[in-house]
Amino acid sequence: MEKANIKRKSSEIEEEEIKENVNKKIDTTEKEKINDENKIGKSQEISEEEKKEEHFVHDVYEAIAPHFSDTRYKPWPVVDKFLNDLQPGLIGIDVGCGNGKYLGINKNVYIIGSDRCSNLIKICKERGYESLVADNLSLPYRSDSFDFAISIAVIHHFTTPERRREAIEEILRVLKKGCKVLIFVWAFEQDRKKYDEQDVLIPWHIPKKKYLNKKSLNKKDYTESEKSEHLVKYERYYHLFKKGELDDLVDQIKIGKVVETGYDRDNWYVIAERI
Amino acid sequence: MRLITHNMLQCHVKGCTKDNFPLKLEEIEIEELEAEFNADFIKSMLNRLDWKALAQTTFSLGIAQLPEEMPEELSDEMLEQLHHILLEIDITSGRMVCQGCNHVYPIRNGIPNMLLTESEV
């Protein structure tokens, strides 16, 4: 009983922290942006959204890659089924493949993984998977050329509706007509946890000794408490999708249509067809 | 990176629409892999790849001299050769150069880096 109470309390604190940090950190990002602009002039204009994604998504995954990877090994049943139902000899892509946990599910198809985070792609390569570093918003593939695609837990890291739509449209562009993409995003409506806002920063704690080398330790500015503790906190940006929101995004895209939609363990998913 | 992957890649620099495929492989290092031969899989892959680009690439690398057009009937010998080309050659380092805009995509430790800088997107 006592244990359960403590648990609940700590999760409440965590949520408070998330809310506070969203505002605080975004302020800091804004300041950093101004500083950077002064330093480098106006030649390299990076939008606020890109900056936010760089700071709260790309940089975080680069830092947490090995620890993140060790916690990601169980395939989700819907994704597993989508991949195993594919005919042998097809060719497809996993956009935002992370540590490559879906790249080896069906050995009878050819699948290329890509991720924005090079440290995660290194892990894929070490595991023998075909993979490359690429940005979801500008995929380096020929149009109308793939038989299938998956996008698992990726689109929720983009910070605006336009960028989320563009990311999906870019995947549809490289699919052949009539072919399908499975998209999973984190849901606002979760069984275990309630959120007040859709745009949140979710903490990720890394055991320092095991996962952080000296180089990455120096890279991060530690708070006094982090210096003495064995855990280091990073935060990732998420847009939590409300019911129907993912479907609406696909509906806005001329070259795509929703063919299946559903909810599975705190995530919304759609299967969209290239038209 | 295997040559199947290379065959799907295209330069994606903004405004680069001419001669953006295939990317020219330069200064490459190759490692040989072993893969199980499956004739149906190879046939299926060939229907999905751009044959001309594959022939051009394998010729320029000195790996094979494939006919200009994909033969209608593929002999067992040829399928085995294609199996080797497509699945058993791993490009571990080098670079890919766009013949349209000269953009260079590096390959290090077997991993192509296809990121562009902000101004190129």
UniProtKB/TrEMBL annotation, chain A:
Domain of life: Eukaryota
The protein, known as: S-adenosyl-L-methionine-dependent methyltransferase
Biological process, per Gene Ontology: tRNA methylation; tRNA wobble uridine modification
One Gene Ontology cellular component annotation held by this UniProt entry: nucleus
GO molecular function, a single term: tRNA binding
Region (Disordered) location: 1-22, 29-48
Entries under PANTHER family matching the protein: ALKYLATED DNA REPAIR PROTEIN ALKB HOMOLOG 8 (PTHR13069)
Keywords associated with the record: Methyltransferase, Transferase
Pfam families noted in UniProt: Methyltransf_11
Residue ranges of domain Methyltransferase type in the record: 93-182
Ranges of compositional bias, category Basic and acidic residues: 1-12, 29-42
Phylogenetic placement of the source organism: Eukaryota, Fungi, Fungi incertae sedis, Chytridiomycota, Chytridiomycota incertae sedis
Automatic annotation (TrEMBL), chain B:
GO CC aspect terms: eRF1 methyltransferase complex; tRNA (m2G10) methyltransferase complex
UniProt GO MF annotations: protein heterodimerization activity; protein methyltransferase activity; rRNA (guanine) methyltransferase activity; tRNA (guanine(10)-N2)-methyltransferase activity
GO annotation terms (biological process): maturation of LSU-rRNA; maturation of SSU-rRNA; rRNA (guanine-N7)-methylation; tRNA methylation; tRNA wobble uridine modification
Any single Pfam family the record assigns to this protein: Trm112p
InterPro entries per the UniProt record, alphabetical: Trm112, Trm112-like
Family per record: Belongs to the TRM112 family.
Description of how the protein assembles with itself and partners: Interacts with TRM9.
Stated name of the protein: Trm112p-domain-containing protein
Biological source species: Piromyces finnis
